[in-house]
Design goal:
The structure holds two protein chains of two kinds. Chain A is of the alpha/beta class. Chain A is built from eight helices and twelve strands. Chain A has one domain (about 5-255): P-loop containing nucleotide triphosphate hydrolases (Rossmann fold), CATH 3.40.50. In chain A, strand 9, helix 6 and strand 10 form a beta-alpha-beta unit. Classes of the chains: A alpha/beta, B alpha/beta.
């Protein structure tokens, strides 16, 4: 392939609190692709997502991560976001006193500034936000509420995908966005994600459950266990896992140690 | 001394002077001054001078209708309990006087604006008397330049069924000393709100005390921002003297540099003050390892059918929230400012005067930027 990958992870090792969590991750994601990363609890899925977003809780001890061919690991979290990386948080943070609208506008303007574009016009912004809210079937009153404050679990997850829809990232990493969603919310969230799919973008879906992948159909499925990708395949791999569970995967992980 | 002072007032002032002479300045051995040393004030010995203010002069009012003033002045703020009140009562030369007659709604906020000059002591004395069924909003502001000492006392009488909102903006110079007492007497069914904002001053002490009668609602809110070597001490007291009164209290502090903060919140519920509903909250954001806060609730409850809650928190900026903002593209400095701002806004947005809210939001933002540029701190 002549295209530059959007994301290229090479032999990535990362620790948290002195413990090695990621133990040699290799992953290449090209534009237009949707990758699913599955695995049991504690396999390192969320750590991988947070390392990509730039969380400093995790120390990268070796390996590299390239974004559009550039070294990602030297960039601050805000620089990564400004360049088009979006992490949908597993546990979206409540920020009392900061309205959703203000927050989203500040985020959008930071990204526009990096691209050399002027600040978004107030009316344009409002109409953009209204359109995306309709897509996510969210009530407009949420805009003036504080970020995630008093939101239900489902509302928080929906709010993440709403933000993603407004910010239109080049690389979206969804960290267990499906956990705890009822089927209606799952469909809305999936629809929001699918709307973003396009030839120039890539999506990495981190999930514990196969269910989400019925709605966001991946091009590739990777199975993470004990900090390594132990198996990769097409979308059928997710179905296999659903049948057999993660028990066999743990054995596989032990075998490759 | 005021020429037109009547004999009864003269007697109150004489006793105040006597009280101060006997006791002198408080020391840290005094429980009420445990965390605040005023020796720098005692040492400075700035000569006293009449305060410079815009607002209706108390001195003039005393000449015009001494009876009304005599009825209230010096009757609420206690010289026996507070040495600085005694000092003010003995030596004040002027201040602001506001009288709102019964059944009157004052639409525009009333401003009382003080500007202090270097190397002087002033004892601003304010008296606000609000008649029954009336409504008024008052802004009391203190500013100045250089080193000086402001020792203010404000007595507020909220008449029966009145609605009174009071904002105190302490924006004194960085080298100044500022001590102030706000003493509020709430008549039956009155609603009083205090917003006590402290931004400036090297050494600041506020006492805000309200006595609530039957059916009253009393709100004491506060915001204090301290950086560098600033010391800001807020003592509040809500005295539930009668049944069926509700009080709400929210004080928030942001401390940076090697500043120190003190919050002491007293709630008294007297024996017959049944059905009291009192809620006190003090939250502190400590931005630097050198900054400290001493926070202490003091509840004295003598009635048995009451609801009283209190809580105090001391914390740093939420790292999770900071990362969340940055992960959306918002720069680290802007993200920190946004979180500090959001913390403080909680108090500011409770103020019922839109222009003051806007003013404070702007002032807060400027202080964040200024402090970062001058000291490398976030405040």
């Amino acid at each position: 392939m002549s295209k530059t990958p959007i994301l290229e992870i090479k032999d990535l090792h990362a620790t948290a609190g002195g413990k090695e969590i990621l133990r040699g991750i290799n992953l290449t994601v090209y534009p237009g692709e949707v990758h699913a990363i599955m695995g049991p609890n504690g396999s390192g899925k969320s750590t991988l997502a947070q390392v990509i977003a730039g969380r400093d809780l995790y120390g990268v001890t070796s390996g590299e991560v390239l974004y559009e061919g550039d070294d990602l690991l030297t960039l601050a979290p805000e620089e990564r976001a400004q360049r088009g990386i979006f992490l949908a948080f597993q546990y979206p943070v409540e920020i009392p006193g900061v309205s959703n609208l203000y927050f989203l506008k500040a985020a959008l303007n930071a990204i526009r500034k990096r691209k050399g574009e002027p600040e978004v016009d107030a009316m344009d912004f409002l109409s953009l936000v209204r359109r995306k809210m309709a897509l996510m079937e969210m009530e407009e009153s949420l805009l003036n509420r504080a970020v995630n404050a008093g939101f239900s679990g489902g509302e928080k997850k929906r709010n993440e995908i709403f933000q993603m829809a407004v910010l239109e990232p080049r690389l979206a990493v969804l960290d267990e966005t499906d956990s705890g969603l009822d089927i209606d919310a799952l469909k809305i969230v999936s629809n929001g994600v699918n709307t973003l799919r396009g030839p120039d973008r890539a999506i990495v879906v981190v999930t514990h459950y196969q269910r989400l992948l019925n709605h966001i159909v991946p091009d590739y499925v990777h199975v993470l266990a004990q900090g390594r990708i132990v198996k990769s395949g097409g979308k059928s791999l997710a179905l296999e896992l659903e049948e057999s569970g993660y028990a066999g995967i743990e054995e596989l992980a032990e075998a490759v140690r | 001394m005021m020429a037109a002072a009547t004999s009864e007032l003269q007697e109150i002032r004489r006793r105040a002077a006597e009280s101060f002479e006997t006791r002198g300045y408080p020391t840290k051995r005094d429980e009420e001054w445990k965390y605040t040393s005023v020796s720098a004030i005692a040492k400075a010995q700035f000569p006293a001078e009449a305060p410079s203010l815009t607002g209706n002069s108390l001195r003039t009012a005393l000449e015009q209708h001494p009876g009304l003033i005599e009825e209230h002045l010096g009757r609420y703020a206690s010289s026996e309990e507070n040495a600085f009140v005694a000092l003010n009562t003995a030596h004040f030369e002027d201040g602001a006087f506001l009288h709102v007659p019964r059944n009157t709604v004052v639409e525009e906020p009333v401003w009382i604006d003080y500007t202090a000059v270097p190397d002087r002591t002033t004892h601003p004395r304010n008296l606000i008397v609000v008649g029954a069924n009336s409504q008024v909003r008052i802004v009391e502001r203190y500013r100045g330049s250089g080193r000086y000492f402001t020792n203010a006392v404000t007595e507020i009488v909220a008449g029966e069924n009145s609605v009174v909102e009071h904002v105190k903006l302490e924006e004194e110079s960085a080298q100044s000393f500022h001590v102030a007492t706000i003493q509020v007497h709430q008549a039956r069914n009155s609603n009083f709100k205090s917003h006590n904002i402290s931004f400036g001053g090297l050494l600041v002490r506020n006492d805000v005390n309200a006595v609530l009668s039957t059916g009253c609602e009393g709100t004491l809110n506060g915001l204090y921002l301290a950086t560098g070597k600033q010391h800001i001490d807020n003592h509040t007291a809500l005295d539930h003297a009668a049944p069926h009164a509700a009080s709400h209290e929210l004080y928030k502090g942001i401390l940076d540099g090697i500043s120190t903060g003190v919050f002491n919140g007293k709630i008294y519920v007297r024996k017959d003050a049944q059905k009291t509903d009192a809620k006190q909250t003090n939250k502190n954001l400590v931005l630097s390892p050198g900054a400290t806060i001493n926070t202490k609730p003091e509840l004295q409850i003598l009635a048995d059918d009451v609801r009283c809650t209190h809580g105090a928190t001391v914390g740093q900026l939420d790292e999770e929230a900071l990362f969340y903002l940055r992960a959306r593209g918002i720069g680290e400095i802007e993200a920190r400012d946004l979180l500090i701002y959001a913390f403080a806004r909680d108090v500011i947005e409770r103020i019922g005067i839109p222009e003051i809210r806007e003013y404070l939001e702007k002032a807060l933002f400027e202080r964040l930027v200024f402090s970062r540029q001058s000291s490398g701190g976030a405040l």
